[in-house]
Specification:
The protein has 9 helices and 14 strands. By secondary structure, the chain is of the alpha/beta class. The longest helix has 33 residues. It starts with a helix and ends with a strand.
């Protein structure tokens, strides 16, 4: 009886190892395809809330880096900013989905984004064996912005990107981890929408891919039915969707960022559910992928 159990266990182990080898064999051509290519990952919002998933995402990013992908991680942190404001007794106000940002709010945003979140992600990447360096849009005047709308206060519209600091880190073997605060021409700090910043950075890098990790499956024909996921659309189809009644709410600005990134030279942009285990690896290293891809051509 004991011998049969041991035999079955060994057989199961051999089967599992064979499966693992088969997965690696199938993934190899895609790994070679992305070797030396720049992939920008936008990570933020509710996709960052679960600590276990966050650990897994960081591990996947390190793996991508180790197989030759030049990964750039751009992060937001809206929920954590809101949480900190609540703890400090400050009310959060939104206009058209964007946070109204006075001087105190932008200081809180800078503290949370460029401080707590940025350094936490850097530490996690290094814990998983990666080499990471945290910077913000203020460093090296990387992101230059101007006030977007007086109603929003210190919320910036990007007017220029100095991508050299990011290239320097990539060339030195680091994973750049970028928080989305920026400066204006007079040295004032402005809060920047994370998706918009990721699109601008990916465009300035001429990235092969921009992957936007969010808390939804992707673009759905019916927002209440995950089985209606659209796996791939063209740039023209994305523009039509933005003008249609099919997408609404937060998906509209995400699709607009996809369109912006591609018009700036990014080859494709994918919206994926960052809460799904190993969604990044599925998107890059499997034929099926994950989420919705907007392709440039």
């Amino acid at each position: 009886m004991k011998e049969n159990i041991a035999d079955n266990a060994r057989e199961a182990a051999r089967f599992t190892n064979a499966q693992r080898a088969e997965v690696l064999t199938q993934a190899l051509p895609l790994m070679q395809q992305y070797d030396g290519k720049v992939v920008v990952i936008k990570y933020g919002g509710n996709a960052m809330v679960d600590d276990e998933v966050k650990q897994q995402v960081m591990s996947d990013i390190v793996l991508m880096s180790l197989v030759g992908v030049r990964v750039v991680l751009v992060h937001g942190g809206g929920p954590e900013i809101s949480d900190m404001m609540k703890r400090l007794g400050k009310e959060t106000l939104f206009v058209d989905g964007l946070r109204v940002t006075d001087q105190e709010t932008v200081e809180i945003a800078q503290m949370v984004l460029a401080g707590k979140i940025n350094k936490t992600l850097v530490s996690l990447l290094q814990t998983h064996g990666g080499q990471a360096m945290g910077i913000s849009g203020l460093d090296g005047r990387m992101i230059l912005a101007e006030v977007r709308d007086e109603r929003l206060g210190l919320v910036g519209e990007i007017v220029g990107v100095n991508i050299q600091p990011v290239l320097d880190l990539l060339d030195a073997g680091y994973i750049p981890v970028i928080s989305t605060v920026a400066g204006d021409a007079n040295g004032n700090t402005l809060n920047i929408n994370g998706d918009t910043a990721a699109a601008a950075i990916a465009g300035a890098l001429g990235a092969e891919r921009l992957i936007m990790m969010t808390d939804i499956d992707g673009v759905l024909l019916d927002k209440n039915d995950p089985d209606t996921l659209i796996p791939e659309i063209s740039l023209d189809e994305a523009r039509k969707l933005v003008q249609s009644d099919i997408v609404s709410g937060g998906m509209v600005p995400k699709l607009e960022c996809c369109i912006s990134a591609i018009t700036q030279g990014v080859k494709s942009v994918t919206i994926i559910d960052g809460r799904v285990p190993h969604a990044l690896l599925m998107e890059l290293f499997t034929d099926e992928g994950a989420g919705t891809m907007v392709r440039g051509s």
